[in-house]
Specification:
Blueprint: H1 4-66, E1 71-78, E2 82-88, E3 96-105, E4 108-123, E5 131-139, E6 153-158
Parallel strand pairs: 4-6
Antiparallel strand pairs: 1-5, 2-3, 3-4, 5-6
Amino acid sequence: MKTCAAALGQSSLELIITLSFGLMILLPIVTLAFVQVSNSNTTLATSEAATSAEKLAAIATQVASQGYPARQTLLLEVPQGVQAVYVGNLSYNGIGNEVIFVVDTNNGKSYITAYTPINISGYLPGIQGPATYLINVSATKICPATRGIGAPCAFVRFAS
């Protein structure tokens, strides 16, 4: 005949064994859920950065095609994980045909690029993290890259 203490000890041991099996099954599921949430956050940030880059490129194309003195102010949404925004090309204040968002992802940096058919340049220092920025896009008289030929060109900067 078992004593009461031995019966309690046996039931406690059975409960611990049952709980440990349950935890062994749940731990990989919880880990997988966290990985999936992290991947979906990265995908969302990349998608939002692409939308913002396309918006800025479209506005710059529209303003430049209207010619000087056209200008437009826009609200630019910058999602979580954006490290920098380059207008023109990757060099500092370079003239080019791209709007580039540098997004920090699980696999390192990702460069989200939107193409513009016109020459574009600009200076957007300090754009980082989730925020909404007021941006000025203005057409220029002479585009430096075309040496005064008169091709459409736009300049992007923070609104003052």
